[in-house]
Amino acid sequence: MFIQIRSGLSNAGDFIQFTGRFFKEVLRPPYEFKEFIRQCFSIGNRSLPLVAITGFIMGLVLTIQTRPTLAAFGAESWLPGMVSLSLIREISPVITALICAGKISSGIAAELGSMKVTEQIDAMEVSGADPFKYLVITRVLATTFMIPLLVVFADCIGIYGGYLGMNMQSGITLFRYVAKVFEALSFSDIIPATLKTFLFGFFIGMIGSHKGYTASSGTESVGKAATSAVVAASLIIFIIDMMAVQLTSLLT
């Protein structure tokens, strides 16, 4: 038990030091713009189909499951607003972040871990390049900016899925459905939900980079780094979401 606590505290300290190094070097030139753009495209392109399918199913299923209950109370007109609030406030940000934690964070950890094991990172240092800037900072910034965009895309697809789910039983037009959605939304719903997605993206990239960049020697360490990155990123997503919900409730 003591050994596990000691190991956990040691890993937490290493992660904090790794994060501090990121903030220390992120604004220091040179800047790897080309690699940053490439990572943004790679992260968004790899995750877009899965995020789109998941967002559509979430909106469709949520509408179909909720409609009978609201119809029993004569409140079916509240359905567009309820579905959109549920998606934008909580469901889309968390589910999309969890998908990206399983796909992106593990991919970053495996990629950097394999480079660490095969001594490619050491070779970059010997050649005079800065592997931390090229490998870590670009990936963390890419996840920080791309995860919110993926969440917004999932929100839009989810709302459209909700429209199709509602249109199965009632002939509401898309314009009327969208109008009801925006009637129910306010900036206090959108802004906090958007801000926490930046934290989701930052920690997804940071945890994956840390696990891969500090992987030990041996091929089995690559798999361990990818697995631990998914677990740690998923856990931190729930913790951030809990804190964001509590903070939002206090401010409103």
Description:
The chain has one domain. Helix content is 86%, strand content 0%. The model has no long low-confidence stretch (mean pLDDT 88).
Characteristics:
8 helices; about 250 residues; mainly alpha; about 0% strand
The level of helicity is: over 70%
Mean pLDDT: 88
Strand content: under 5%
Most strands sheet: none
The number of distinct helices, counting runs of at least 4 residues, comes to: 8
Radius of gyration: 21 Å
Sequence of secondary-structure elements: HHHHHHHH
Topology:
Elements: H1 2-25, H2 33-72, H3 79-117, H4 120-126, H5 131-167, H6 174-184, H7 187-213, H8 220-251
Task: Explain briefly what this protein structure is.
The protein is mainly alpha-helical and 252 residues long.
